[in-house]
Amino acid sequence: MQDEKVISIEDRIPRLKKQRRKKVNRRLIFYLTLFFFLICIIAYLQSPLSNVRHIEVLGNEFIDDEEIIALSNLDINTNIWNVKVEEIEALIEENSFVKSVVVTRNLPSTITIEIEEYIVVGYVEYKDEFHPLLENGERIPLEDRYLQGDAPYLIDFTDESMLQTLAEHLSSLPNNIFRLISEVYWTPEAQNEYKVQLYMNDGFIVNGSLRNLSEKMEAYPSIVAQLDPEDKGIIHLNVGAYFESFSN
């Protein structure tokens, strides 16, 4: 019985040869595939297929796509691997509206420019015109495309430091409160140079201070909810909070 279970070397050799041949074939296929893959990559890099064909701009509202592309110095005939991402980002960030920018390659042939713009917190009165004021306190030269009527008018702000402070407060306000502000006047007094007066779109006026404007204004919706909507007046938010009706 033992002799029947023994497999002779002559019987094993063909099987070993077959297994060895399979390994060799698999290895050959792997190297051939890798070789052709590298050839395809080299051909792609050397051909016009690797040139930039599309430039996609995202996130911009005030700056036109064409303006951003012009700032980037990108050319659709440039090889996508020759695009210097950090240099392009630095060029675009020179625009005053640009808060941050991220440039990415999207193979095979698209460059994506994603923009985050500074928020326009108001339109400040300057030389009989209203110039956009950004959240970082920078005033932008007037252009019609910037006047979208989506931010309050800032009047009588002759002190740049006060304007900077106002920009910080307006940028930190919740959007639902910010949209209610129609006009902001700087009304300094001898004992309070930070005094401001806000005209609201719902008909109320707010007397406040630039020391704590954003903090105090967060209570505005709850204060108005307790008032008669037909009885308009002034809401004082300097020290405490109280209401003074126009009828009085």
Plain-language structure description:
- The chain has 248 residues and is an alpha/beta fold.
- The protein is built from 8 helices and 11 strands.
- The chain has helices at residues 2-5, 9-46, 65-72, 85-92, 160-172, 175-178, 213-217, 220-225; strands spanning 54-58, 98-106, 110-117, 120-126, 129-134, 153-155, 181-186, 195-200, 205-209, 233-236, 242-245.
- The longest helix is centred in the first third of the chain and has 38 residues, at 9-46.
- The mean pLDDT is 85.
What topology does this entry show?
Layout: H1 2-5, H2 9-46, E1 54-58, H3 65-72, H4 85-92, E2 98-106, E3 110-117, E4 120-126, E5 129-134, E6 153-155, H5 160-172, H6 175-178, E7 181-186, E8 195-200, E9 205-209, H7 213-217, H8 220-225, E10 233-236, E11 242-245
Parallel strand pairs: 1-3, 4-6, 6-7, 9-10
Antiparallel strand pairs: 2-3, 4-5, 7-8, 8-9, 10-11
Short structural summary:
By secondary structure, the chain is an alpha/beta fold. Helix content is 35%, strand content 25%.
